[in-house]
Amino acid sequence: MPEQDTTRPDGRLLPLGRFWTIPNGLSLLRLVLAFPLAYLVLTHGPLRWVLALALLAIVTDWFDGRVARWSHTVSDWGKVLDPLADKVTAGLVSMALVVRGDLPLWFFVFVVLRDALIVLGGALLAHRTRRVYMSLWSGKVAVTVLALTILAALLEADPPVLQGLLWVSVVLLSYSFLRYVIRFVRAWRVQPEPPLFSGQTVTSST
User: Fold this and answer.
1) Exposure string (b/e) for 72-85, b if CB count within 10 Å is 16 or more?
2) CB–CB of 21/68 below 8 Å?
3) Domains of the chain
4) What is the pLDDT of residues 75-100, one digit of tens each?
5) Which pathway does the UniProt entry assign to this protein (predicted)?
6) 93, 150 contact by CB (below 8 A)
7) Amino acid 201: pLDDT
8) Is there a contact between 94 and 150 (Cβ–Cβ < 8 Å)?
C-alpha cells in the first residue's frame, strides 16, 4: 500500500492521524508497562510478575501493527509510538539488567547509541521530507532477537547461551542500523518539493 501523503499545500507536516485508536492504545500500554517491568527487574521482584509483564508487552507489540492493518487505522502516530515503546522498554530493562550485573555495560551502551542515532535520523528526515517513515523489517527482526536476549538474561541462562544471543543481537542490530543509514542517505538526497504559498497555483506540463 503506498504511503499516505502527509504534507499540507504550504509544506507543513499534516496531523499524524487519529491518536486514540486501539493500536496506538496497545503501543501506549507497552510504553507504560516498561517502567514497572524495569523496576521489578532491578529489585529482583517475583519472577512470575516479571514474566507476566514481559509477556503482556510482547503481546501488545505483536498485535498493535496487525490490529492497525486489520481495522484500517494505520496512522503516523502509530509509526512513532510503536518503535518508541520498543526502544524505551528495551532500554529500561537492559539498564536494570546491567545494574544487576546480568548484562554487560558495553551491550547496553551499544543498544542505546544505535537507537538514539535512529531516532535522530528519523527526526531529521521528518523535518526535511515532511514524512514519517515506518520501521524496517530488519529492525523488527533485530528487536525480536534483542527481546530473546533480555529474556535469557532474566532467566539466568547458561553463559554460552547468553553470549551467543548477545553476539547474534549485535550482528542483527548492526545490520538493521546499516539498512536505516542506507534509507536515510537515499531519502536525504531527494530534494523536497518547495512549499506552495498562498495564491500560488500548480501547473502541470503535458
Assistant:
1) ebbbbbbbbbbbbb
2) yes
3) 22-189 (1.20.120.1760)
4) 777 778 888 888 899 999 999 999 99
5) Phospholipid metabolism; phosphatidylglycerol biosynthesis; phosphatidylglycerol from CDP-diacylglycerol: step 1/2
6) yes
7) 41
8) yes
φ/ψ of residue 134, rounded to 5: -80, 160
- Is there a contact between 161 and 35 (Cβ–Cβ < 8 Å)? no
SS3 string, the chain, reads: CCCCCCECCCCCECCCCCCCCHHHHHHHHHHHHHHHHHHHHHCCCCHHHHHHHHHHHHHHHHHHHHHHHHCCCCCHHHHHHHHHHHHHHHHHHHHHHHHHCCCCHHHHHHHHHHHHHHHHHHHHHHHHHCCCCCCCHHHHHHHHHHHHHHHHHHCCCCHHHHHHHHHHHHHHHHHHHHHHHHHHHHHHHCCCCCCCCCCCCCCCCC
**In the block, which residue shows the cell 484500517?**
72
pTM summary value:
0.76
Residue pointed to by grid coordinates 528526515: 125
Q: Within its chain, how far is the Cα of 100 from the centroid? A: 25
First CA to last CA across the chain, in angstroms? 27
Q: What is the pLDDT of residues 35-70, one digit of tens each?
A: 999 999 999 999 999 999 999 988 888 877 777 778
Rounded Cα distance, 136 and 176, in Å: 8
C-alpha closest to that of 39 among 95, 113, 108: 95
